[in-house]
Design goal:
CATH class of the largest domain: Alpha Beta
Number of helices: 8
Radius of gyration: 22 Å
Bound molecules: S-adenosylmethionine
Largest sheet: 5 strands, parallel
CATH architecture of the largest domain: 3-Layer(aba) Sandwich
Structural class: alpha/beta
Number of domains: 2
Order of helices and strands: EHHEEEHEHEHEHEEHH
Strand content: 15-25%
Number of strands: 9
Helix content: 25-40%
CATH topology of the largest domain: Alpha/beta knot
Distance between the termini: 33 Å
């Protein structure tokens, strides 16, 4: 799978690409992540990517030309692949595990990180396939949302997770939140690990975990249970 991430702050991605599962997935060739500097597609000596909004108002807007050229550059490189252009924006559909699973089957994703007041609407109308939001709040730029998409998709690629990690029983994969986890020691500052987890009875442990996942979801995210019930 290939990611092209279009940004005015390429350096922001250095950290996330160098650690953990993402690093391993890149090293093993499961994913190729290319950070594309939007300013490389400007023609003036100030390397401008933004201008004032028509009609007046606050802030600046990404101009169409650098974005059109950057997106076309990324698409042209991978003409034979199934590609999708994604704009990170608070006006998009809310990101979820369902989308992460769906996107993990797309061969080439081009992610556009907005800044300022956003991007010229003509970019969206002509070139963007989907608009994605990471939640109902406003961040200063699309870089952190792009990292959210990248990280949650890459860990679903077959072979990305190691022996000790699993995407099967996690929160949302089952439609519920995850059950509580414990590790050694069996007692810490007087707080004991539930007896059942030390029992070795896997059938009972499984039942207990299901029950705990249900209780936690009921308490914190009851709408997930309603959704799961409606689907069954
Ligand atoms: C300050 S925001 C622009 C907000 C825009 N004026 C609006 O009200 O929708 C700048 C950029 O940050 C990114 N951004 C901010 N919040 C986001 C969110 N919740 N999800 C995805 N991207 C977001 C987008 O790329 C956006 O273009």
């Amino acid at each position: 799978m290939i990611f092209d991430i279009i940004t005015v702050f390429p350096e922001m991605f250095t950290g996330i690409l160098e650690y953990g599962i993402l690093h391993r997935a890149r090293q093993s060739g499961l994913v190729d992540v290319r950070i594309v500097n939007l300013r490389d597609f400007t023609r003036d000596r100030h390397r401008s990517v933004d201008d004032r909004p028509y009609g007046g108002g606050e802030g600046m807007v990404f101009m169409p030309a650098p974005l059109f050229e950057a997106i076309e550059f990324c698409s042209d490189k991978e003409k034979n692949l199934d590609s999708q252009v994604i704009l990170l924006t608070p006006q998009g559909k809310t990101w979820s595990q369902k989308y992460a699973t769906e996107f993990s089957t797309i061969a080439h994703l081009i992610l556009i990180c907005g800044r300022y007041e956003g991007v010229d609407q003509r970019v969206i109308d002509c070139l963007v396939d989907r608009e994605i939001s990471v939640g109902d709040f406003i961040l200063t730029g699309g870089e952190i949302p792009a990292m959210v998409v990248l990280d949650s998709v890459v860990r679903l690629l077959p072979g990305a997770l190691g022996r000790w990690e699993s995407a099967v029983n996690e929160s949302f994969s089952t439609g519920l939140l995850d059950y509580p986890q414990y590790t050694r020691p069996a007692e810490y500052r007087g707080h004991k690990v539930p007896e059942i987890l030390l029992s070795g009875n896997h059938e009972n442990i499984e039942k207990w975990r299901k029950q705990k996942a249900l209780e936690k979801t009921q308490q914190i995210r009851p709408e997930l249970i309603a959704k799961k019930t409606a689907q069954n």
